[in-house]
Specification:
heterodimer, A: 255 residues, mainly alpha, MetI-like fold, 10 helices, globular, B: 257 residues, 12 helices, flat
């Protein structure tokens, strides 16, 4: 295919994408403003925009955002430290890997969100149960990737370093860590994403505060326009956090 | 068997040590629940297992499990159909791929849990909202894996078939289709995980007859025995469903190696 043709193709597909976005918004606007779709089911996009501006200008979102981000930070910190250290300890022996890795992997295939009612029973409706669910869901990708990272370092590197007289610390610092680091980073990124999702999810299902709770609260009050505004706000926050984490991962891997 | 001999056997066979670890965890749970933790919050596994019969005898629970299983099945079937149609149409055409894929990835990137209240608003609190929410979780991984699978076909195979005069249908039947099978089943496995997550989330969020109603009931009446029994049954169901698609994936991916 010629480069010129290729460029025309690219422009055409961009045009279709932009057209699609505009089409959706236009249909949304026409449907609500002229075709009489109920305001409760689908609010007018103009109203949503006004509500969004109001939310951001009034700073009303701050307490909820703080709660959600605190839960995320605590949950991610706990799952990082436990996941990486347990993963490292297991990865030190092929025997332990053989015993524990299939166990952890099969536990991972159970939808852990099922335990949410249990966590609510143990830790209450507040932050405790959100932190617990975020921690237990993000623990698995982190520990599995840590085991994969440390456990499957090429034997040649280890033997070479040993025969050249590397100490344990040197071995860790210059052989194991550089080899395992990218794999662990991927695990951390996946862990971060699932922690965020599960915390938002558990706030939606049962909670007293937080962004997920706010959306449910507005849904129950039938304030759909404001709910749509909050949903877009949360989507933007989540997209921003995920992009930031992916960028950090790429940067750390390049070194 | 003496202690040392037992230790040696376990060391030689990690497969035997695994059940031992599981047994140890259950033992720790049993001890903790019996002597340390308030029975209003945690029950020992022995009591949970014993209460399984009572759980199935509870009025409404078998029906709720049936409803959930039905929701899972329908949501999975719809996800597979949508995933297959969209995945193939986006994967097989260069233009559709360039245009559609960014839109699909954009939609996939939205944290769907935030729009769960909308599903209840549109589809009501009955099974349709659970099915719809399950479908939105299940179809995207299927679409993405099918697109990746179709695109990973070596161009040389397509060119060879083409130059030997194969028709479009023949190319699809003999080149694309067999190469798509492994990624199709990989997608089904991911889709099943997604459907399980979506349906269970929606069930836990609001439910009048499904399992979400009973988890709430047992939580609010501080009945950890029944709650744990119900959660175990559901976890078992999830494991069986996951295992079925995983086996299918292994089975149908074999021809390549």
């Amino acid at each position: 295919m010629s480069p010129k043709h290729d460029r025309r193709d690219k422009i055409a597909s961009r045009a279709v994408q932009i057209g699609f976005l505009f089409g959706v918004i236009l249909l949304w606007y026409l449907g609500t403003a002229y075709w009489g779709i109920s305001r409760i089911l689908l609010p007018n996009p103009v109203n949503v925009w006004t509500e969004l501006k109001d939310i951001i200008a009034s700073g009303e979102f701050l307490p909820d955002l703080r709660v959600t981000l605190t839960e995320l930070a605590v949950a991610f910190t706990i799952s990082c430290t436990t996941g990486v250290s347990i993963g490292y300890l297991i990865s030190r022996s092929q025997y332990l890997i053989k015993v524990f890795e299939p166990l952890i992997a099969s536990l991972y295939s159970v939808p852990i969100i099922l335990f949410l009612p249990l966590y609510v029973l143990f830790f209450g409706l507040g932050e405790g149960s959100k932190i617990a669910i975020g921690t237990s869901i993000s623990f698995f990708p982190i520990v599995l990737n840590t085991i994969a990272g440390f456990g499957y370092v090429d034997k040649i590197f280890i033997t070479a370093a040993r025969s050249m007289g590397a100490s344990d610390v040197q071995m860790f610092r210059y052989v194991l860590l550089p080899a395992a680091f990218p794999v662990i980073l991927t695990g951390l990124r996946i862990g971060f994403t699932v922690a965020l999702l599960s915390i938002l999810g558990s706030e939606t299902i049962a909670s007293l505060e937080g962004l997920g709770h706010r959306i449910v609260h507005l849904a129950e009050a039938m304030e759909t326009a404001r709910m749509f505004a909050y949903i877009s706000f949360v989507v933007v926050i989540a997209a921003f956090l995920n992009t930031a984490v992916s960028a950090l991962e790429r940067r750390a891997k390049r070194r | 068997m003496s202690g040392a001999a037992l230790k040696r056997t376990l060391l030689r066979h990690p497969g035997l040590a695994r059940p031992a670890v599981v047994a140890g965890m259950f033992l720790a749970w049993e001890i903790a629940a019996r002597w340390w933790i308030d029975p209003a919050f945690l029950s020992p596994p022995s009591k949970v297992v014993a209460s399984l019969g009572e759980l199935f005898a509870t009025k409404g629970v078998p029906a709720a499990l049936r409803i959930t299983l039905w929701e899972l099945g329908v949501a999975f079937a719809i996800s597979v159909v949508i995933g297959l149609v969209v995945g193939l149409s986006v994967g097989l055409s260069r233009f559709a791929n360039r245009t559609g894929m960014p839109i699909i990835l954009l939609l996939y990137g939205i944290p769907q849990i935030t729009i769960l209240p909308l599903f209840i608003l549109y589809f009501g609190i009955g099974p349709p909202s659970k099915i719809a929410f399950g479908v939105t979780h299940g179809m995207f991984p299927i679409i993405v894996t099918i697109v990746a699978g179709v695109q990973n076909i070596k161009p040389i195979l397509m060119t060879a078939a083409h130059s030997m005069g194969a028709s479009r249908w023949q190319i699809f039947r003999w080149v694309i289709f067999p190469h798509m099978i492994p990624s199709f089943f990989a997608g089904m496995r991911l889709g099943m995980t997604g459907v399980l997550l979506g349906v269970l989330l929606a069930e836990l969020y609001v439910s009048t007859a499904g399992i979400g109603y009973y988890t709430q009931l047992f939580t609010q009446s501080f009945n950890p025995t029944m709650l744990l029994a119900l959660v175990s049954v559901l976890a078992g169901m999830a494991i069986v469903l996951n295992e079925i698609v995983r086996r299918a994936e292994i089975h149908f991916g074999r021809w390549r190696s």
